[in-house]
Amino acid sequence: MEEFFVQEDQVIIIVLTGVLFLLLMGVSLLLFFFFSRKKIVEKEIEKNILEITYQKEIIQSIIITQEEERKRIAQDLHDDISSKLNVINLNANLLLDGELTPDEYTFVNKLILEVTDRTLKSARKIAHNLLPPILEEFGFKDAVEELADTFNNSRKINIEYTINYPKKLLVPQNELHLFRITQELINNSIKHGKANNSKINISYKNNELIYSYTDNGVGFNVANIDNKKGLGIKNIESRVTLLNGKYNIDSKIGKGFKIEIII
User: Fold this and answer.
1) Angle, CA 16 vertex, CA 11 and CA 20 arms, to 5°
2) Domain Histidine kinase: where (predicted)?
């Protein structure tokens, strides 16, 4: 009888031990899942914060670019259009005074017509910079070719280009973004890169638009965040984001600059 109770006590101990072990396992699993979930949530929060920060940087870049563009337009209007209109106004007042000789009257009339013609050309130039008519009428390919030819004729930089771009591949707004990227890259090559040669290669393969731009300028260290994230690069980055594309920059000091954009 005593042996029976001893055996029963042993069974109870084994059962209790098993139950306790299962409880400990359960608590351990719960703690494991809790901390694992906590780490996942923390990583998700960190990821979301990074995405929000990135979006803020893009928006800020767009705003800064817009403000710079407004300043440039305002400066062009003030320096070019406003000054010419002042000349027209002064000469028109001379005509109103009626104290001119016939020769002076003819001279002032000719001057007004000449300055008016130059003002119209300046206005067309400003409008062209805002939205090139050729881009709207003939599309991206012709607009880029005209842009490159214009720079080639100015002898500021020599641009070679190979453009295989299906007409109306991108919607007009996205064509404008890619055109602005091209303008930004060329201007950066001249102003910052001190380049005298550059190449534009655009191709369409496997449902991807591949845009490549290179120059032989002074280059920079891409590891230097201050260089890589300058206003020009931020402007390009923001436009690539709007195009739902991706880009890669390769540059070394003294080895020029290259960017590849895939849309």
Assistant:
1) 150
2) 76-263
| In the chain, alpha helices (H) | 2-76, 83-97, 102-130, 133-138, 140-154, 172-191, 225-228, 231-242
Core vs surface per residue 183-206: b (16+ CB within 10 A) or e: ebbbebbbeebebeebbbebeeee
Q: Is the pTM of this model over 0.85?
A: no
Task: Kindly state the percentage of the chain with pLDDT values over 90.
Answer: 8
Cα–Cα distance list, 89 to 85, 94, 101, 125 (Å):
6, 9, 19, 22
Residue 120 lies in a domain: no
Model confidence at 199, pLDDT cuts 50, 70, 90, reads very high
Contacts for 253 with CB less than 8 Å, ≥ 6 apart: 218, 219, 220, 221
Interior angle at CA 222, CA 177 and CA 55, nearest 5: 45
- Burial of 246 by CB count in 10 Å (0-12 exposed, 13-18 middle, 19+ buried)? exposed
Residue 210, domain CATH: 3.30.565.10
Name the residue among 218, 213, 183 with its Cα closest to residue 201: 213
Domain count of the fold of the chain: 1
